[in-house]
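user: can you give me the structure for this one chain? C-alpha cells are fine.
assistant: on it. calling the predictor now.
[tool input]
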Amino acid sequence: MASIEHIREQLNKTNLTKIFFTDLNGRIMNLPINPDNIESIIANGIGFDGSSVAGYATVDSSDSLLFPDPESFQVVEFCDNNNTLGSRTTGVSQDILVTHAMFWP
C-alpha cells in the first residue's frame, strides 16, 4: 500500500490535485481536492453530487461518497506549451495544467 507520507510528499510537489474516476459509461470524471485533506479523504471519502455522474444517481438521492484507492495514486506531469514567441498559449486548456496528482479507480 502506498504510504500516506509518500502521497503527502508527492502532493507537496504538485500545483493541482484531482481524484479521477469513471462513470458507468466509462467516461473519465474528476473531483478537484485540497491536498491538505488527503488523509481524511482516504479514510472518510469525499462527498460529491452523484446526479452529475451519468447513470449513477437521481437528483433526489444524489449525495454520494467517493473513496480513493491509495494504491492507484499517481502524479501526472503536463508539459508547458509555449507559442513561437516563447510565451504560454492561451487557447489550449492543458496549458493551465502543469503538475497534477490523481487517483485512478
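assistant: here you go. The first strand starts at residue 16 and ends at 22. The chain has one domain: 4-103.
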